[in-house]
Design brief:
Blueprint: H1 3-6, H2 15-23, H3 31-71, H4 74-111, H5 124-127, H6 129-136, H7 139-165, H8 167-171, H9 178-218, H10 223-234, H11 237-252, H12 255-260, E1 264-267, E2 272-277, E3 287-293, H13 295-306, E4 311-313, H14 315-324, H15 336-355
Parallel strand pairs: 1-4
Antiparallel strand pairs: 1-2, 2-3
Helix pairs in contact: 3-4, 3-9, 7-9, 10-15
Length: 356
């Protein structure tokens, strides 16, 4: 394997890798989704806020105007302004509370409860102009620019279509009572915001899917990184405890049941057989489910063939695993590399078989 190939990120991230990335703030998040949901909430909340304003400010305005010629004093003017301002203040507070709550809940729905200072920690590459230009003119930056232009065009077209459809009503607003005109204008604005928000939600859903794929791609691991992490995790108390529990579980089960849970059977090909299991999302290292020699090894091959379990012949690896491991043991660090290559081969073969 060449250095270039070994440096490619081909391995899915382990739980530890995902946890480390999360601590750094490297999580899938779509600002479009937050913006779209907040805009939709605004379209729904504005009539509520305007209702609060209308119920309080309009009667106060009408009352003051009817008595203006007689009671126009500094105190009455101050009372009038306070009476007008309070409903506007309450309506604005209600609107901000709704939008703030929706924004927070949308972010929590995307990334969960996460607090990290990593994204705002001062780093040279963040203030380096050259790095800034590279980010702007990178493939990702170009895609973001195209997306922004496309959104601007789509939203502009929606706004134009709503105004064009109601143009005659819009012109006629000047002949209506101010209160009625405000209601009609509010209906038009509400319709425009809802349509823009719905289209934006569709764009945001696609963007969130893309962000998840990009994040998963960024935190993938090279084979060397996977081997190194396995070495670091092998001696930890958590791994030793999990190893002990796994051994107890395996001792209670039968050979056939154990092999059904395996990912691959590594053979000698006839003298030794070792069943290996590795779950990327829950295991720090591959675990030996079962092992056998001579007659038992042959029996394990028969069970594997009958259950469609991949069988890989690797004489030195099978012999080493048999001698160094017991059922329930994690693969020792000196065998991480060969076992990782076997698992990668098996995963690739299974994937190609399903695709075909």
């Amino acid at each position: 394997m060449s250095e270039q190939a070994s440096g490619e990120k081909t391995e899915d991230p382990t739980p530890k890798r995902k946890q480390d990335a999360r601590k750094k703030g490297q999580v899938a998040k779509s600002t479009d989704l937050t913006g779209a949901v907040t805009l939709f909430a605004a379209a729904m909340a504005i009539p509520i806020a305007m209702g609060i304003v209308g119920d309080g400010a309009v009667p106060m305005f009408a009352k003051q105007m009817s008595s203006a010629p007689r009671d126009l004093t500094p105190n009455s003017i101050m009372g009038f302004l306070q009476g007008i301002a309070m409903p506007w203040f309450m309506g604005t507070v209600v609107l901000m509370l709704i939008l703030g709550t929706v924004g927070v809940m949308t972010n929590l729905g995307q990334v969960g409860l996460l607090f990290t200072t990593e994204p705002i920690t001062p780093k040279f590459e963040k203030i380096n102009p050259l790095s800034g230009f590279k980010r702007i003119f990178s493939k990702r930056g170009a895609m973001e620019g195209v997306k922004a232009i496309a959104k601007l065009g789509i939203f502009g077209y929606i706004a134009y279509s709503v105004i064009a459809a109601d143009w005659s009503n819009l012109v006629g607003l000047i002949w209506l009572h101010p209160a009625q005109g405000a209601i009609e204008l509010g209906k038009m604005l509400h319709s425009m915001l809802v349509k823009i928000a719905l289209v934006w939600l569709i764009i945001a859903a696609l963007d969130y899917f893309f962000q998840r794929k990009e994040t998963e791609k960024q935190i993938k691991m090279t084979k060397q990184e996977l081997k190194q992490e396995m070495k670091e995790q092998e001696g930890s108390p958590e791994v030793k405890s999990a190893q002990y529990q796994k051994r107890r579980q395996l001792l209670k089960g039968g050979m056939a049941k154990q092999l059904k849970e395996a990912d691959v059977l590594i053979t000698n090909p006839t003298h030794f057989a070792v069943a290996i299991k590795y779950k990327r999302n829950s295991m720090h290292a591959p675990v030996v489910l079962a092992k056998g020699q001579d007659h038992l090894a042959l029996k394990m091959r028969e069970i594997a063939a009958g259950s469609d379990l991949p069988i890989v012949e690797n004489v030195p690896l099978a012999r080493a695993l048999y001698k160094q491991c017991e059922a329930g043991d994690f693969v020792p660090r000196d065998l991480f590399g060969p076992v990782a290559e076997v698992l990668a081969y098996v995963y690739k073969t299974v994937k190609e078989r399903r695709a075909g």
